[in-house]
Design goal:
Number of strands: 6
Number of domains: 1
Structural class: alpha+beta
Shape: globular
Distance between the termini: 40 Å
Number of helices: 3
Low-confidence stretches: none
Largest sheet: 6 strands, mixed
CATH topology: Nuclear Transport Factor 2, Chain: A
């Protein structure tokens, strides 16, 4: 069984390589709950199940040109860990379409039985 820190390290390494979908396949529980800071017309703030998380990630990569990604952490606390992500992207649609910008977010993950069962994202897109 993977410890919280082991799961966190594997996730961070995968995200640094833009291998998010591989990380979801190997590290996420099938009943994962994913909570964004905001809901959008494309996605509710909360989705449940690994298939919905995969769909959300695919949408992100299809609708954004990713120029740079950083992932710092994991920062563990019991059965949870946090990761700080920094992105530089150009959206392919929406109000920021074609405008390159940078943003960061904090992600908080909960691990049970060696799998991520909950992820929460904190950011300000205003």
């Amino acid at each position: 069984m993977n410890s919280t820190m082991e799961v966190g390290k594997k996730l961070v390494e995968a995200c640094k390589k833009n291998m998010n979908l591989d990380a979801i396949a190997s590290l996420y529980d099938k009943n994962i709950v994913s909570v964004e800071a905001i809901s959008t017309p494309e996605s509710p703030a909360e989705v449940r199940g690994v298939d919905q998380v995969v769909a959300k990630n695919k949408w992100w990569f299809e609708n954004n040109e990713i120029h740079h990604t950083e992932a710092d952490g994991p920062f563990p606390n019991g059965d949870r860990f946090a990761v700080i992500f920094r992105y530089e992207t150009t959206p392919r649609s929406g109000p920021r379409q074609g405008k390159r910008f940078r943003f960061e977010e904090v992600a908080l993950y909960t691990v049970k039985n060696g799998k991520i069962v909950r992820e929460e994202f904190f950011y300000d897109m205003s």
